[in-house]
Amino acid sequence: MEVKKYTLGQLGTNGYLLMNDEDLVIIDPAGEPNRLIKEIESINIKPKAILLTHAHFDHIGALDALRDEYGVPVYLHANEHEWLENPALNGSKYFPVKEVICQPTDHTLNAGPMSIGDMHFTIIETPGHSPGGVAFVFNEERLIISGDSLFHRGIGRTDLPLGDYDTLIHTIKEQLFHLPDDYVVYPGHGPATTIGDEKKLNPFV
């Protein structure tokens, strides 16, 4: 499986395309829809789904454009189903950006195993940065898409609506840090890292 990272939008949010020979999945279409569509067309594999690590505005800026372009379902944790349509919840109301309002999600993400085509992964609930945050763990490929929970030498902010610092620290220690040290972490912002490096060097945990 190949992972392609794109730094998108005003906040430099990471969006991802994950693909194998048959399947392509979009994770966190953060912005710049025309750029993402151009990339997808060059890959020449039709997307099968859009997965959201959470529903903050900087992770969903291109959501409706890509959903309309490819007619694919959107998956989001139940705790944030209302956020797509609500700028006060998705945070766009509080930043100097156009308010983000998206169509409702199609499906709910639940903790546990999930498959899309020949892609097999595990969903881990990662609340703290937001109440419905999740991470996508690809055990065969030994990688994780962590959203805004764990960063390279950092953690997600907890000063937005319904964020909670203690919950986030518990999430990282009890969920993410139980993964093997060599798992590569692809975060919502900044460069990739590994679980082992963050156990040793992350100043917050």
Structure explained in plain terms:
The chain is of the alpha/beta class and 205 residues long. It has a single domain, classed as 4-Layer Sandwich (Metallo-beta-lactamase, Chain A). It is 20% helix and 29% strand. The chain is built from 5 helices and 14 strands. Strands 1-2-3-4-5-6 form a 6-stranded mixed beta sheet, with no helix packed on it. The protein has a 6-stranded mixed beta sheet with strand order 7-8-9-10-13-14. It has a two-stranded antiparallel sheet with strand order 11-12. The radius of gyration is 16 Å and the shape is globular. The model has no long low-confidence stretch (mean pLDDT 97).
